[in-house]
Amino acid sequence: MVPKAKILLVDDRPENLLALEAILSALDQTLVRASSGEEALKALLTDDFAVILLDVQMPGMDGFETAAHIKRRERTRDIPIIFLTAINHGPHHTFRGYAAGAVDYISKPFDPWVLRAKVSVFVELYMKNCQLREQAALLRLQLEGGVHAGTHHEREPAGLLAELSARLAAVEEQAEALSKQLDDESADAGAVATAAHLERKLTGLRRALDALEPGANGGPAPLPS
Fold first, then answer.
1. Burial per residue of 71-110, b for 16 or more beta-carbon CB atoms within 10 angstroms, e otherwise
2. Do 12 and 55 contact (CB within 8 A), yes or no?
3. Quick one: which of 68, 115, 105 has its CA closest to 83?
4. What does the radius of gyration of the chain's CA atoms come to, in whole angstroms?
5. Where are any strands of DSSP class E within the chain?
6. What are phi and psi of 31, to 5 degrees?
7. pLDDT (tens digit per residue) in 83-111
């Protein structure tokens, strides 16, 4: 069973959190509430999230400050942030949101279909990255097995390499389809950049796997981090 992605919802108003949950429940992912910037940062200490929906206007630590803390942490700096605001202060306000690290900036009241579609893209990208990390971990085990086996490396089961290659091919196919979808829909720059980063890691993993094939020239290629 594929584990569900976690989506962090940050808003000081309970009715807004309830509305977000109603909109995003159809995605069938794990929705985590936070009623303040401090509570959001605490949740980010222990859990991994696919995307963060962050209200701008909050008492105490507002959305901009919260985003700045998120982007300063190595563990969380790459999590996509979608800012939500009830007030449109013009281009300068929007620019501040992007400067704080947001991948998108949506004014309330927002279209539920649009918000759900945007969030689903980042959930799918997150899932692909998780799959890629799993393939990289399996490949590292294969490499370590080859080192420990020494002269018996040729006796390593070819079936494992074939399984790794098939799994990677499936992820590659899904990533290519997602990239085409993003191109067709003129998607957010943040989603496109995340997809491009995923494709680069897939390419590195494919090179490393190909280097393990019998008769491959040179040593194993470095694995993507």
1. eeeeebeebbbbbbbeeeeeeebbebbeebbbbbbbeeeb
2. yes
3. 105
4. 21
5. 6-10, 30-34, 51-55, 81-85, 104-107
6. -100, 125
7. 998 766 666 666 677 777 778 888 888 89
